[in-house]
Amino acid sequence: MPLYLNDEQTMLRDTARDFVAEHAPVRHLRALRDAKDATGFSRDLWKQFAEMGLTGILIPEASGGLGLGHVEAGVVLEEIGRNLTPSPFLSTAVAAVEALKGTAHADRWFPGIAAGDAVIAIAHDEKAKFGRAVALKAERAGNGFRLSGTKRFAHHAHAADLILVSARTAGSDTDAAGITLFVIDPKAAGLDLRPERLADSSLAAHASFDGVEVTADAVVGEIDGGADPLGRLLRAAGAGASAELLGVGAGASDMTLGYLKERKQFGTLIGSFQALQHRAAHLYSELEVARAATLKAQQLLDSGEPADEAVAIAKAMTGLATTLAVQEGIQMHGGIGMTDEYDIGFYMKRARVLAEMFGDSNYHANALAEAAGY
Amino acid sequence: MTQDLDTFRSETRAWLEANCPPAMREPIRSEKDIVWGGRNPDWAHPDQKLWMDRMAERGWTVPDWPTQYGGGGLSPAETKILREEMKRMGARTPLNSFGISMLGPALLKYGTEEQKLEHLPRIARGEIRWCQGYSEPNAGSDLAGLQTWAEDAGDHYVVNGQKVWTSYADKADWIFCLVRTSKEAKQGGISFVLFDMASPGVSTKPILLISGYSPFCETFFDNVRVPKSQRVHDENKGWDVAKYLLGHEREMISGMGLDRAGGNPLIEGAIATVGLDDQGRLADPILRAQIALFEVRMRAFSAMSERFLDELKAGRAHPAQPSMMKYVGTELNKQRHELIMAAGGSDALEWESDASAKGARPRAWLRTKANSIEGGTSEIQLNIVAKRILELPG
Ligand SMILES: Cc1cc2nc3c(=O)[nH]c(=O)nc-3n(C[C@H](O)[C@H](O)[C@H](O)COP(=O)(O)OP(=O)(O)OC[C@H]3O[C@@H](n4cnc5c(N)ncnc54)[C@H](O)[C@@H]3O)c2cc1C
Question: Which of B1, B279, B293 to mutate to test the interface with A (most CBs of A within 10 A)?
Fold first, then answer.
């Protein structure tokens, strides 16, 4: 498989690019923010994504989806990133779909996702930094389980139709075995969801589980075998977040290059100053490297080959490259870059949130080092 | 198609297993381990010749060149498989040469049929070692400012002038050289010629480098006769050839940033010096973090490099893309060697001892400082990316 988009993927990208830019450009985010929208994203837009078939992008055709892969999901996520579109696409159409694939829950939830009716949130993080430990307890109670503990940074959870929760059913906090993945109704008794607004104006919830009871059929996959669906979820989410982050970086860089070609100082376009040209060329290089790493991870996921390391590289590299893109974006815009009225600052904020999501660059570099034995 | 490629892969793997001598699967430790071929080859190990000859016989020193020019005639997909299989078993590159990475591609594009038949098979078999006569004392980054003069003398030119920084000029058999054939136009007055370094009037003088080696020279031309049949492409059109060749040179140099066959000297070296703690982590946490972040970049760059080759084969790469690759790859390679030195501590500083393989580590580190200079400096690459890819003004 050559490491670039094939013709169909390029067509899909063009379609997604036009669609997202038309229906959810940065103005859309700004309007939601200014209205202090309590959902944090637009259900109407989610429905429009579904009408385009996009919400079912990873859902098999037999279940009403498009049956496409991670490369295609990434193509859509990049455009979401480029336009800073608030959307549950990553958690629902990518992470949750991958986790539920092949389990008993697929039949129940895939049609709703494909139709744009269902939104699913992921509750996995327990601390301020993403990590491997899972401490939230799920104890057997009758023929079901009782969940207690806390989760945080659960995007869209307050507005979701379903929440996927990782819980400890055996072993100690840092063990890979003994985790079980559950589907939970956000309205379940004992579950308290407290949405917090983040720097990018999206909403992510603190969730406290106070003896939340679920029946045995809430288990996704096998009891104690959550590493399996959770692994699928995290790989898909990692690659997807990389693509969205890359889109944020690309959007910021496009804006910045545009500005360099129009802003005049000292009687000349600032883009003709070599100091800025070199930094722009450096930034371009970093983003291209990140782009290749992201596509590599997606292609490996689609071919079913081991992809853990490629996903770690992609997430770490997009984190580094996009951080540079937004920092240079503000700097090269000068004072106007610091104003709320101008969009570049929105890129800075979203990049930071996405960089933290599903593990930052340091987390993934560390994972790579551990895999290499040092 | 995939079936055929699977067969190709398994046959290639079997052939390599049977034919690559064990000594050629060892990591490259110093300059001596690199094979350059030529009229007076310098074999550090008998298996070097065996390995080069076996590969050349199959055309696999230049797997994607056409068979009539000594190549393997492999498709892009097959070439990629061959490289992957070689990397898998840690096989060394059988032959390194400016003929393969620079002149060959330029001759394939611009050479006459006679020139191709004369030079390409000999490059493929490692018989002729080439050097590059581009830079002059007053024409470095501003290469088109070169002054070496080729006087028209009917069926030949008479060349006079001086080149500098000519890598391996003292060891090379032939030179590909930029000369001025017109003073009317800067870029439009340059021609691209090939000649034997044994021609009367050619002399070289080695220059000692910071690494203690002197792999490059000042090169002088005093009334050197160069037949016009040895000019590649039209008179005064040499700049086109020069630029095309530079693209290949940059791509080749960018490969220095990549993961090479056979282990990871950086990580292994760091473990050997600072050791692992009881959690199996490098005992120096800051060095560990620096190495891990370096590895992220290096492996992401490796994907970039793969993508570039795929795009190139499909004819969809931007012609200025090698500048970007060169910039990133060489900065990474310099960083890698800084880390190797940091990990090695005082061991890595020993200049002549056995422990340091005669100072291979510090000398390699010093050598990498040229990566961002040779083949066009990083600043020049950034200029090219800014103007030609990003289309910034001025
Ligand atoms: C190890 C090594 C091997 C080499 N091998 C060969 C060889 O085989 N054959 C050959 O012909 N040449 C060879 N070279 C020469 C090499 O191509 C030149 O050194 C290189 O092009 C830079 O030219 P210069 O050394 O004259 O530096 P200069 O051009 O004088 O540059 C000095 C500094 O000014 C900067 N600079 C110059 N112009 C600009 C600009 N427009 N904008 C911003 N910054 C600028 C440069 O980036 C550099 O930092 C080799 C060099 C090295 C180090």
Answer: B293
For residues B145 and B186, is the Cβ–Cβ distance under 8 A? yes
**Alpha-carbon distance A295 to nearest alpha carbon in chain B (angstroms):** 9
Q: Which of B78, B85, B136, B249 is catalytic?
A: B249
Distance CA(A249)–CA(A297), nearest Å, equals 18
Q: With an 8 Å Cβ cutoff, is A320 touching chain B?
A: yes
> What atom of ligand 1 comes closest to residue B169's alpha carbon?
8
- Residue whose C-alpha is closest to residue A203's, from A353, A325, A55, A313: A353
Report yes or no: A350 and A86 within 8 Å, Cβ to Cβ. Answer: no
- In order along its 394 residues, chain B shows pLDDT tens digits of 577 999 999 999 999 999 999 999 988 877 788 999 999 998 999 999 999 999 999 999 999 999 999 999 999 889 989 998 998 999 999 999 999 999 999 999 999 999 999 999 999 999 999 999 999 999 999 999 999 999 999 999 999 999 999 999 999 999 999 999 999 999 999 999 999 999 999 999 999 999 988 889 999 999 999 999 999 999 999 999 999 999 999 988 888 767 655 568 899 999 999 999 999 999 999 999 999 999 999 999 999 999 998 998 899 999 999 999 999 999 999 999 999 999 999 989 999 988 777 888 899 999 999 999 999 999 999 999 999 999 999 8
Q: Write down the ipTM of this complex.
A: 0.92
Is A2 part of the contact surface with chain B (CB cutoff 8 Å)?
yes
Predicted TM-score (pTM) of this structure: 0.93
Q: Which of A75, A53, A79 is nearest to A66 (CA)?
A: A53
